[in-house]
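To make this tangible, we now present a fold written out as tokens:
***
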Amino acid sequence: MPFPASAGHPQYSGNFIPVIWSGKLQVKFYKATVLSDITNNDWEGEISQQGDTVVIRTIPNITIRDYSKGQTLVHERPNSDPITLYIDKGKYFDFVVDDVDKVQSDVQLLNMFSDDASEQMKIVIDQQVLGTVYADAHAANKGANAGAISGNIPLGVGGGTALAIPKTGVIDTIVDAGQVLDEQNVPETGRWMVIPPWMAANIKKSDLKDASLTGDQQSIARNGRLGMIDRFTLYVSNNLTTAGGGTYMPFGTKDAICFASQMTKVESLRAETTFGDIVRGLNVYGYKATKPEALGVIFGVKA
């Protein structure tokens, strides 16, 4: 908006007084992605050059039986059902920058747009995985009566009643999730949980704001770092799915979910129908909960 002028006085703004475009761009904030921290890529190398399906062999469970002297033994032929990982998903971007704009612009348009496209690609894939894979969690690792042994741990019913999580009960919920994995004999190392900002805020308002309870030099209310709670490394994300009055918060270990990217390609080429450069990128990938017993989900709502 130009500086005001009194009636009858000429206004030079936009004519003799130029509009200055800053060479410093406004910072753009992106949603934090967590995919690389919570998944494994154990089978990515097997499909890097060819194929669209990976059949993963699993170790069978051997039956242990009672023995009495002189009895006839029962022979077992071990068998297991393989898991199939399909490379059946793809995302791309494609944009063009005209030569005239490239020459006349005071910023590097190609670099700026390419960087943004790369970030947006990660966010979209992150949202897709977080928004769907939780449905493959083991039946005993979700719902109102979770727990392979106890069967009485409330984690909320997806599509039904969300678990109310107040600041006074947020730590209990995390500990309950840990018990769910314990009852599935899931290793304690490498456990993770993805939570929304409101749950992170509840944690900071909980009793853990007292540094003497965590053993840290500063409280989480002071340093803002959630770190690890009950063996879970906590990740805060805005990419979680919220539906039906609650948020789906997956938890597990890196063994639970396999992510395989077969092709990540970015190329630049000359446009055929205009004077300009085209930049396009493609990501072909697949993912699956290969160890459902190591994956759980909380369907919760702030209380």
